[in-house]
């Protein structure tokens, strides 16, 4: 029995599904890029009748829970670390806005401690974050 060999035909990889794979990879990359890595502390926001929105690129978020715990950008911290961070910001990026985000039931003394640190360091770019009452 004689087998016919085809000459000139080499090995080939089918590229029919290559575009599908590239499309799925593109969707995966886009979804991963959209993940918000912002850490939030669960608090009950105070309410306000009017609110002003600020740009979020240059913000330091200081969370104060009802027990007086201090969190810098969602990371558990204390007032000494807060003072060091405000001092660093004053030297490197003085236009960075500090957002004070406190629970509705937080005693004023706990919030005032953070404000006194900012007052001593003469840091004046601060906002209080509240929920709009509408």
Structural overview:
The chain has 134 residues and is of the alpha/beta class. It has a domain at 47-132: Nucleotidyltransferase, domain 5. 32% of the residues lie in helices and 19% in strands. The protein has helices spanning 18-33, 79-92, 108-120; strands at 47-48, 59-64, 70-72, 75-77, 97-102, 126-128, 131-132. The strands form two sheets. Strands 4-3-2-5-6 form a five-stranded mixed beta sheet. A two-stranded parallel ribbon has the order 1-7. The longest helix has 16 residues, at 18-33. The protein is elongated and about 100 Å long. The N and C termini lie far apart (89 Å). The mean pLDDT is 78.
List its traits.
single chain, 134 residues, alpha/beta, Nucleotidyltransferase, domain 5, 5-stranded mixed β-sheet, two-stranded parallel ribbon, 7 strands, elongated
């Amino acid at each position: 029995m004689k087998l016919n060999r085809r000459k000139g035909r080499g090995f080939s990889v089918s590229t029919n599904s290559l575009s599908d794979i590239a499309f799925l990879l593109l969707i995966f990359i886009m979804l991963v890029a959209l993940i918000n890595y912002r850490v939030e502390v669960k608090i009950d926001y105070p309410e306000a009748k009017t609110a002003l929105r600020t740009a979020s690129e240059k913000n330091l978020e200081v969370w104060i829970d009802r027990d007086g715990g201090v969190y810098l950008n969602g990371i558990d911290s204390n007032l000494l670390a807060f003072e060091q961070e405000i001092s660093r910001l004053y030297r490197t990026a003085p236009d960075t806005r500090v957002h004070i985000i406190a629970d509705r039931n937080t005693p004023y003394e706990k919030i005032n401690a953070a404000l006194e640190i900012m007052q001593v360091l003469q840091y004046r770019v601060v906002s209080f974050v509240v929920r709009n009452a509408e």
